Amino acid sequence: MRTISRRAFLGAMTVPVMASRTLADTRSGIRIREITHEHEDYLYRTPIKFGGTILDRVTLLNVRCVVEDAGGRRASGFGSMPMGNVWSFPSRVMPYDVTLGAMKELAQRIERITADYRDADHPIDINAALEPEYLRCANEVDAALNLAEPIPKLCVLVAASPFDAALHDAFGKLHGLSCYRTYGRDFMVHDLSRYLGPEFKGQYLDGYIRKSPRQSMPLYHLVGAVDPLTNSDIRQRINDGLPETLPEWIRYNGLTHIKIKLNGDDIRWDVDRVLGVDRVSAETQAQRRVRSWFYSLDFNERCADVGYLLDFLARIREKAPACFERIQYIEQPTARDLRAHRNQVVHQAARLKPVVIDESLTDLESLLLSREMGYTGVALKACKGQSQAMLMAAAARKFRLFLCVQDLTCPGASLIHSAGLAAHVPGVRAIEANARQYVPVANRPWEDRFPGIFKITDGRLRTGILTGPGLGAVPP
User: Fold this and answer.
1) Distance CA 184, CA 165 (A)
2) 3, 8, 225, 276: which has the highest count of C-beta atoms within 10 A?
3) What CATH number is given to the structural domain containing 34?
């Protein structure tokens, strides 16, 4: 396959986002008639530690919309996503309530901007047109709230994601189809070259995305940095009927995939943690007569440099070769700002295991830059927007990158959205679903309606049921 430099690729994208209306545009597009949002708060069952921070609560951003086509037909859409301020807007100088408040103010302005959009378009075109406005209003929030640090682009994507999701959901429901069946030339006015450059001329998303979901996919279970591995790690049991140690979770859900959160600033602890997880897993899987299982490792960009990662991998390989072989991929080892850390190339590490970008992935340019720096994979996330996830999935598949779909501890509708995304993108290995561990109360209204997604006994989510219209999640 011919390669093209990031500069040449971006320079060739000369078609502006806003273009004149066409007959096809008007016929297949939707106009936004109503859009509203609300918040929903939950305390975690147990805290989670990642990126050096312990988190014990979540605020969901729920969005509802009504859209209309040129013939006057109407449909309602729903989108939901954890606000994820600790992950998307990390700060050492602003407390949790301040960054969450900034996201709430941003959501208010995103609602107004989205409601004022007057053209009839496909949801992907609506998002492409509005994203610059969302970014601009983030600057306004910075000034209005006198924030000590500016709102990052990643945070803007997270705040906008349920609005984008609601539009995709409504578009699919308007046509009585899964939204994944509305990404071809019958519904989209523009081919992928409009969003991804000339190499995609004449191609549409449906050439990269499955129209029907995979029947089932493995579940990735999270071991947070403060999660107990064995009974000896528990000070006081919760005794709520759910598992509390790693062996209990493995048996309860039939797990074969385990994601391990690491600190990235204490190599002895990180190595011991992985070896501990491997020892406990091996004992439990032997009792279950399971011979094959996998790990993913997430440093949440905490490694000071790539040398730390290489040293870490060398120690794991030396101390436990079988454990090293079970590592399926590594997430975002170093800082998310790739431009400011161009020296942190990961070519050598990526020759050992796939290394994927997560926090860094906010647009096509960051994807292309990551390839130059040696990254060999991409973590897609529903919390960055359905539109972006679809486009980045197409680009990643074009470039033959390793693909995974990661979670933002998504409960309820947001998990259905995330699972649907994973099941419709070829090459995705498994689904992360952390809310069942940390905030199961938010899943309860959904469990009986989607048992194959929320009740797992054999380590797999039954994603084949996600064939309903839109994103497939109708709120209770």
Assistant:
1) 18
2) 225
3) 3.30.390.10
